[in-house]
Design brief:
CATH class of the largest domain: Alpha Beta
Number of helices: 14
CATH architecture of the largest domain: 3-Layer(aba) Sandwich
Strand content: 15-25%
Strand order of the largest sheet: 2-3-1-4-5-6
Structural class: alpha/beta
CATH topology of the largest domain: Rossmann fold
Helix content: 25-40%
CATH superfamily of the largest domain: P-loop containing nucleotide triphosphate hydrolases
Shape: globular
Largest sheet: 6 strands, mixed
């Protein structure tokens, strides 16, 4: 996953040769999607970033037709359906007053993943929408139906205004990471280890987000490496809260005074993204693990793996050392399918999810939680096996 994927995602869905690519080109103002009269021109989901005034940067995804045919067509439909859990908003495109089982089926998928959507009747320069059909759709599905064609700018503007109106606020409006925990003039200490896993010449996204959030809350931000932490404490400056990389919990928790709040970037981000209470409830499952239990480590990004990789090596080792059990670990990177059925796992541990959207992360875990399988995240798991779990979730229990 790339940083651009943190932008709100809009998916364009519809039958083959319905005008999806033309719609995307109109929204973007460039010929970025191939337009053809031949059905099935778009074979795989294609992403493009644009700026929509009133929302900001967004990623628009063009998908293959939901009425594709044949063996390859079925695979293309599966890929199109696979986009739905990862978009914040959807446009279902229809034309020629055709609305039937294909449209109903994809609307059912929108509902499963709580994906807000509108229906757009395209190619209105050729055939306008039938008012009776429009009324029936809006009455049955409770959704807005809008007309569109690529030749009328006013229709494009109408569509953009609908996107601004119905795009969920949490898809593009930033929440505060530390609101309710810090106040103006508080000192916040960020502890940022620099090891072989750290990106060259820059900080990881949660560290940057924390720094900006401290400044937005008119507080004072101080950043140190863990190797300089003891020296900083001796200066006599008492922070309101210390936020560290979870991997440094064992060392940092011994240095930070007990009367200073302590948490990690991963736990802070988990609370920001949702499912926080599920992580709190699921993490103690670690103490109940038995020999042969299956654990799934969920990584949101794909990356080169080193011997210092937290999810692939360090965490499995620490969990086995803590439990004294021989466990089986699976790994799933990006937004790929799970290696085993959900019910085969005793515990699923999600990374911080710094390179995916809130919607993508929550839909990733939604079937797990529904199945009743315990979930945790990297930071909470490290805190639990380190023996400081209650301490590092305490800052967030104070601001409910």
């Amino acid at each position: 996953m790339k940083p651009k994927d943190l932008k709100p995602h809009i998916g364009i869905f519809g039958r083959r040769n319905i005008g999806k690519s033309s719609l995307i080109n109109a929204l973007i103002g460039q010929e970025v999607a191939i337009v053809s009269n031949e059905a099935g021109t778009t074979t795989d989901p294609v992403k493009k970033s644009i700026e929509i005034f009133g929302i900001g940067p967004v990623v628009i995804t063009d998908t293959a037709g939901i009425d594709d045919v044949g063996e390859l067509g079925a695979l293309r439909i599966d890929k199109s359906m696979g986009v739905i859990p990862n978009v914040d908003f959807a446009i279902l495109l229809i034309a020629n007053n055709i609305f039937g089982e294909y449209e109903t089926k994809i609307i059912q998928e929108f509902d499963i993943y709580d994906t807000p959507y509108i229906i757009v009747h395209g190619k209105s320069d050729i055939v306008s929408i039938n008012n009776k059909l429009k009324e029936e759709i809006e009455l049955t599905f409770g959704v807005i139906v809008e007309e569109f064609n690529i030749f009328e700018e006013v229709l494009l503007e109408n569509l953009l205004q609908l996107l601004i109106k119905w795009m969920p606020d949490n898809a593009y409006k930033q929440k505060s990471l530390l609101k309710g925990i810090i106040k103006p003039k508080d000192v916040v200490l960020l502890i940022t280890p620099i090891d072989s896993e750290a990106p060259e010449g820059r900080m990881i996204l949660p560290q940057v987000m924390a720094l900006r959030d401290v400044l937005d809350n008119d507080a004072i931000c101080i950043t140190v490496k863990e190797t300089e932490l003891e020296y900083f404490i001796k200066l006599g400056i008492k922070p309101k809260i210390a936020i560290t990389d979870s991997q440094a919990f064992a060392m940092v928790s011994k240095i930070i005074p007990d009367d200073v709040l302590l948490t990690s970037f991963s736990i802070m981000l988990a609370r920001y993204r949702g499912n926080f209470e599920e992580y709190i409830k699921g993490t103690p499952k670690i103490s109940e693990l038995q020999d042969g239990d299956n654990i799934l480590m969920l990584e949101s990004c794909t990356h080169q793996v080193s011997c210092e990789d937290i999810g692939r090596f360090k965490l499995p080792k620490w969990i086995e050392e803590y439990t004294g059990k021989k466990l089986n670990f699976d790994f799933a990177a990006g937004l790929t399918n799970f290696p085993k059925p959900i019910e085969d796992y005793s515990l699923i541990i999600q990374c911080g999810g710094c390179v995916v959207t809130e919607k993508q992360l929550n839909n990733r875990l939604k079937p797990v939680i529904k199945q009743g399988v315990a979930v945790s995240n990297y930071g909470m798991t490290i805190a639990y096996v380190t023996g400081i779990f209650d301490r590092v979730i305490q800052p967030f229990s104070k601001c409910k």
